[in-house]
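ok so for the tutorial part 2 we go from a plain amino acid sequence to predicted C-alpha cells. step 1 is just haveing the sequence, like this:
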Amino acid sequence: MLPSTSRQVRLAVVTLVVIAAILMIAVIPFIGFDMVNPIVKAQQARIEKFTTEGNPQAPLLAYTVWLVSFFFPFWSTMSLIAGITLLVIALPLYRGERWTRGLALLCLAVPSIGGAYMIVPWMNFIGGGFPPAITIMTVGLIPYFTILLAEKVDMTQKAVDFFVFLMLGVTAAENFANGHAAFRILYGHPARPLFAEGIAITYFGWLALWVGMGLCIAAIYLLGEKKVSGWYAGLIGGLVTMVASAATHYVRHATNDYLYGALMGLSIVVMLLIPVFKQRLLIEYSG
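step 2 — the prediction. this is what the C-alpha cells look like for a chain of 287 residues:
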C-alpha cells in the first residue's frame, strides 16, 4: 500500500490479505481439485451422448476433459503459491513499502482470474447449484479492491485505479477462457493436422489471447508499482486482445465471447490513452 495510508487502515487491509492468503493455501486448492471429477464426468457423458447421436460437436469436446483436469489444478496450485507469497510480504506491506503493492495485487489476481475461468465449465456442464469457483474468485477480489480503494488518495485516483485494474483482471480472465476454447477447437477438430475452413484462426486466437492475458497480468503488477513499463504492457495487452478477439469473432461468431473480449481490450486501450489516466497510474497522489 502507499505509505501515505494511515497505519490503522494498513493494519485492517493487511489483516484481510492474510486471511485471504490462508484461504488460498488451505481451502482454494481443495475446492479447485474437487471440481474436476464432477465436471469431467459430465463432459464424458455429453461426449458419449453426442457420439451416439452422430453430433459433429463430439470431437471438439474431446480435449475439454484434459484441459479442465489440467487447468483447474493449475490455477488452484498457483493460488497456493500466491498465498504463501502474500504471507511472506505481509509485514513489509503493512509498513507501506512501495514494492509490495504490485506484488500483492498480482498474487490476489491469481485466484480471481482462475476462479472466473472455472465458473464457465461448471455452468456449462453441471448447471445447477452454487458454483464453488465463485468462492475462489471472491477470496481474491475482496482484498484486491480493498488495497486499491482503502489507500489515502482522492476520489479521482480511486476511480482510475478501480476501472483500470478491474478491466486488466477481467480481460485477463476472458482471454484465458477464450484462448482455452480456441485451443480446444483447434486440436479437437477431426480434420487436424489439416486446417478445415474457419479453424486456422483458432491458432492465432489461442496463442495471441494467452499472450494478451500474460501482458494484462504483467500490467497489474507493474502498474501496481507505478512503472511506465506497466502502462506499455497494459496498452500492448489491450491491443493484442482487441485484434485477436475481433479477428476470431469475425471468422467464428457462433457466440459473442470473442466480441466481448475485443470490447474489453478496447476499453483498456481507451483508458490508458486518456492523459489523466496515464498520469494518475504513474504518479503517486495522496488525498
